């Protein structure tokens, strides 16, 4: 482990998967935008020393640490997350051309389960943010792990879906600017294709958009990940924009945990009975203890109501898939003891 900087720690943010395409962008943005005195702890199983050395040269008062994992050992991972206020998991294999989020499931589910177990053991009070795909099924797996370790807090497990909101804002502003500037588009549901439900009717641009324009915007937002994968022609997925979106989310969360402000964001959470699916991307208000409240979403357009109704069964299936995967793996592990 190496460290740079002399500032006293105020908060500790751990990034698991820091040397990947998303992780490098995320680490850079966090080094620039986290509050002075924060410790930024970077973990990966390869190349993390170089990433840490690189971002540590950015002149801010954020202290950088790095931890290199070894196969068959969790010692460095445990050191990384111990004492963390926020842990962000973005480790996993990337999406490739022709690959659906479902194709990612078996590999990434195992990675996130193992990392979450260490978080539960060494940082049970931390707020855990996960951006590893497929988020719709990964968040329920992480919840089951935390429940098994008896440290589950529905307000401290957050799926990072803010990229959908960022894309939705970008796409609508391409149409309505300069006459209107849309600063926020609520996006509810999930983080896969048709489960992504952008609520353009609730934005400042809503009255100016025709039904066909909103339909086209919703479709583009839902397919934006594929747009990037295809444009990169097999050489990557949406790493830069996802890294930026995750950083914005983490910085907002840290501000809330410090009591500086109470931002409203969309994130995949345990809906706690507020919706018909157990886990959904939903607007929430963040506070010193994670999610302070789950917010109402207002009246949707008929088209948005229809898309949300179609997304709910898929979200329920995705959640059950994650839960069943975890139970099966636990049963298999128990049978070998």
Task: Explain this structure.
The chain has 337 residues and is α/β, with parallel strands linked by helices. The chain contains ten helices and twelve strands. β5, α4 and β6 form a beta-alpha-beta unit. α4 runs parallel beside α5. The longest helix has 34 residues.
Task: Please render the helix and strand layout as text.
Blueprint: E1 2-4, E2 12-16, H1 21-33, E3 39-44, H2 48-56, E4 63-68, H3 75-81, E5 86-89, H4 105-122, E6 127-130, H5 135-148, E7 157-159, H6 162-176, E8 187-189, E9 196-198, H7 211-222, H8 224-231, H9 239-257, E10 264-270, E11 279-287, E12 290-294, H10 302-335
Parallel strand pairs: 2-3, 2-5, 3-4, 5-6, 6-7
Antiparallel strand pairs: 1-4, 8-9, 10-11, 11-12
Helix pairs in contact: 1-2, 1-9, 3-4, 4-5, 5-10, 6-7
Strand content: 15-25%
Query: Could you report the average pLDDT, rounded to the nearest whole number?
Result: 93
State the order of secondary-structure elements, H for helix, E for strand: EEHEHEHEHEHEHEEHHHEEEH
- Quote the distance from N terminus to C terminus: 34 Å
Strand order across the biggest sheet? 1-4-3-2-5-6-7
Short description:
This protein has 337 residues and is an alpha/beta fold.
Descriptors for this entry?
337 residues, alpha/beta, 7-stranded mixed sheet, 3-stranded antiparallel sheet, globular
């Amino acid at each position: 482990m190496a460290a740079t900087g002399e500032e006293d720690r105020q908060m500790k943010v751990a990034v698991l998967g820091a040397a990947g395409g998303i992780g490098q962008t995320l680490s850079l943005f966090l080094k620039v935008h986290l509050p002075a005195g924060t410790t930024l702890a970077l973990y990966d199983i390869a190349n993390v020393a170089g990433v840490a050395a690189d971002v540590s040269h950015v002149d801010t008062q954020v202290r950088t640490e790095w931890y290199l994992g070894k196969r068959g050992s969790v010692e460095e991972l445990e050191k990384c997350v111990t004492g963390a206020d926020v842990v962000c998991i973005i480790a996993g294999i990337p999406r490739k051309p022709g690959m659906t989020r479902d194709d990612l499931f078996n590999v990434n589910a195992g990675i996130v389960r193992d990392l979450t177990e260490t978080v539960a053991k060494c940082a049970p009070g931390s707020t855990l943010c996960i951006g590893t795909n497929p988020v719709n099924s990964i968040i329920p797996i992480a919840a089951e792990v935390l429940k098994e370790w008896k440290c589950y807090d529905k307000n401290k497990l957050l799926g990072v879906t803010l990229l959908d909101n960022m894309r939705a804002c970008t796409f609508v502003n391409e149409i309505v600017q300069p006459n209107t500037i849309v600063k926020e588009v609520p996006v509810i549901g999930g983080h896969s294709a048709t489960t992504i439900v952008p609520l353009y009717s609730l934005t400042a641009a809503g009255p100016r958009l025709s039904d066909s324009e909103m339909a086209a915007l919703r479709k583009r937002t839902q397919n934006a990940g594929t747009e990037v994968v295809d444009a990169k022609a097999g050489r990557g997925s949406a790493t830069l924009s996802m890294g930026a979106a995750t950083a914005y989310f983490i910085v907002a969360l840290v501000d809330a945990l410090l009591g500086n402000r109470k931002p409203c964001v969309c994130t995949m959470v345990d809906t706690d009975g507020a919706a018909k699916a157990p886990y959904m991307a939903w607007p929430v208000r963040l506070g010193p203890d994670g999610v302070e409240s789950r917010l109402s979403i207002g009246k949707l357009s008929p088209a948005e109501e229809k898309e949300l109704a179609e997304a709910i069964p898929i979200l329920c299936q995705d959640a059950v898939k994650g839960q069943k995967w975890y139970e099966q793996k636990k049963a298999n592990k128990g049978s070998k003891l």
